[in-house]
Amino acid sequence: MTTLESNIRRALDILLPKIKERHQQSSAPIILGITGLQGSGKSTWASRIVDILSSEHQLYTITISLDDLYKTHDDLIAQRDKDPENKLYRTRGQPGTHDEQLAGTFFKDLKAYTGEGELKIPSFDKSKFKGEGDRAPEPDWPTITKKPDVVVFEGWCVGFQPLPAASIEEKHNLALSGKLPVNTPAQHELAHVLEVNENLKRYCDVFMGPQHFDFFIHIDTDNLRNVYTWRLQQEHKMIEVKGTGMTDDQVRAFVDGYMPSYEMYLDKLRDGLFEDKGRLVKVVLTKEREIERVEQL
Q1: CA distance 23 to 9
Q2: Residues 267, 256: contact at Cβ < 8 Å?
Q3: Rounded CA gap, 281 and 11, in Å?
Q4: At residue 246, does pLDDT exceed 90?
Q5: What local confidence, expressed as pLDDT, does residue 49 receive?
Q6: Which of 117, 127, 167, 273 is most buried, most CB within 10 Å of its CB?
């Protein structure tokens, strides 16, 4: 068994009895959120958990990624061009680059779905427009014809919660003073960081707040600089397979786009997501992506 497989099973085994108990109590789909730092392997976690729950525990499980809820290419360009000075929106990724109406409608339809007819799962094609991406045509979206027992919803900022404006300003000032782990918020104007926070607030209200999840897995590390190492390793492996990919400098710039939100919002998530304890499992990884510790919050 690989280290990654062992990590996944160790975390999932903690939640399995509770997932099965919830399944016996309610016919509603169980929403399991997964968030993880860039390079931590969260997408692999999500797909493997789908396999384990479906094949070993007879729980019909599907997955959807936050990435599949992006706006259309035209809307992403409009978002980017709205404020050319806002570097956080030069590419897709931040809260504000996803289609909140599409997300809200999908999860509403999911909860109401009885298994009659088809339910389409939104899909985004990252290969379109030379990597800028666009929403896949609706006829190409994956469909299900059976009511799922578990839905794994994964994404890099899933589980992040907005902060009071004063807290955002305080963290921004700490970054300007060089007192955060990486200090990336200092690369951006306060107004631009606050815009992300406002967008995140709407996300949480509509589809991504604690009230929308039953259980949660948070893949974390004690040293945020590990993220750069992990993402570089991923890119180097992809280059070995495909023969092309980003340069090391491009990878660092890519991670820099996500790091401000890690530095802003991870502290709150690390304290837990739910008021009642025991529904969130936090997995803290070492630089080598081995488990340092597992916590129930």
Answers
A1: 19
A2: no
A3: 7
A4: no
A5: 98
A6: 273
Helix (H, G, I), strand (E, B) or coil at 83: coil
Kindly report, residue by residue over 97-116, the tens digit of the pLDDT.
999 999 999 999 999 999 99
Q: Indicate the pTM of the whole model.
A: 0.96
Residue showing tokens 């129930």: 296
In a domain, residue 60? The reply is yes
Q: Which two tokens stand for residue 134?
A: 């666009």
- Residue 37 CA to residue 279 CA, distance in Å, equals 20
| Single-letter amino acid code for the residue at 152 | V
CA angle 70–39–86, rounded 5-degree value: 45
Asked if 156 contacts 42 with a C-beta cutoff of 8 angstroms, the reply is yes
Question: Each residue of 47-74: pLDDT tens digit?
Answer: 999 999 999 999 999 999 999 999 999 9
43 within some domain: yes
CB 170 within 8 A of CB 148: no
Determine the pLDDT at residue 42.
92
Domain span at 190: 3-288
- The answer to whether residue 295 is domain-embedded is no
CA distance 64 to 122: 8
Q: Give Cα 108 distance to the centre of its chain.
A: 19
Name which of 99, 106, 77, 74 is nearest 89 in CA terms.
77
Count of structural domains, the chain: 1
Is residue 119, in this structure, part of any structural domain at all? yes
Contact 242, 140 (CB under 8 A): no
**Residue type present at position 64:** I
Q: Indicate which CATH number applies to the domain containing 110.
A: 3.40.50.300
pLDDT in tens, 177-210: 999 999 999 999 999 999 999 999 999 999 999 9
